[in-house]
Request: fold
Amino acid sequence: MSRNNREPGYRLERREPRGCNSRGSIGAARFSPLNPHSAIRNPKKQQGLAIVLALLVVALATTAASYMVWQQQLLIRQSENLTALAQGQAVARAALDWGRLILAEDGGQGNKVDHLGEDWARSLEPTPVEGGQFVGKISDAQGRYNLNSLTDRDTDGVVFRRLLTVLELPSDLANAVRDWIDADDQVSFPGGAEDLDYLGGNDPYRAANRLLIDINALYRIKGFTPEIVKRLRPFVTALPRGTPVNVNTATAEVLTALFEDLGLDAAKDLVEKREKDAFDDLNAFKERTKTLKLLNPNMIDVKSDFFLLNAAVQFSRTELSYLALVQRQPAGRPKLLWQRQQ
Ligand SMILES: [Ca+2]
Ligand SMILES: [Ca+2]
Reply:
């Protein structure tokens, strides 16, 4: 038979399988895990492949299990945090209620005077509760200068200007605050500012022309920088109406602002003596300061209607701090004007 006449299957019957030697064994160089025939024909290689696959499965299973455990721990931690937050908020509300009760008790005794020797002024020591603790503090908001008094009681701004001077700040800022609060658009001189001053900037806005709700509004008033607000903040407040300063709770700086000729050192002496012997009424205060020139008799009192309540709560990993402003009522618990988390 000629070479060209051979039938197509002739060479296949004779040819040795690829990768086999003459005795039919499989060459190592030809082994491939993708070639099932090669593994099937070598038990050792098959065993190795199985081990590799088993290790791979174990590794994947371990990774999946670890991920699931991590996810579960995350959910448990989130759940614990939410529970601690809810418990902390409940304790903080209870602490603020405690403050209102203390103030109601003080006000219910025919209250004629508020001073720092009274029960409400004592800070509540850290008090343990199950899973945490809280502290509480009441402070007299009228121990500070109320900026809203610029449209009521301190209408000429003489006391506020003096306070600014005592704090080494520009006294003209007083007119800018008064213009921001007062209803008209007449610019006070010097230092005042109304709509036209605020509409010309890159971020135009108008003067509020109403009482301040929050000290942070100072940032929008002409002339106030973050440094000035920071310096002023411990000595001022914003209450819903004009109020006198309680001379029994005012700081030395605020007391100095009430007089034309009281120096800061003399005011500190006054505060020191006051701590041992509070002013029972305005006459007692006037008697003790009779050699000094009071700037505005409408700006002094010996009792207060507005108080700040602070409650700090630590519960598990959660720490919360709340500040609230309350107004004492003729009877019952003081009215909550606002509260916020700090
Ligand atoms: Ca009192
Ligand atoms: Ca105005």
Notes: The mean pLDDT is 87.
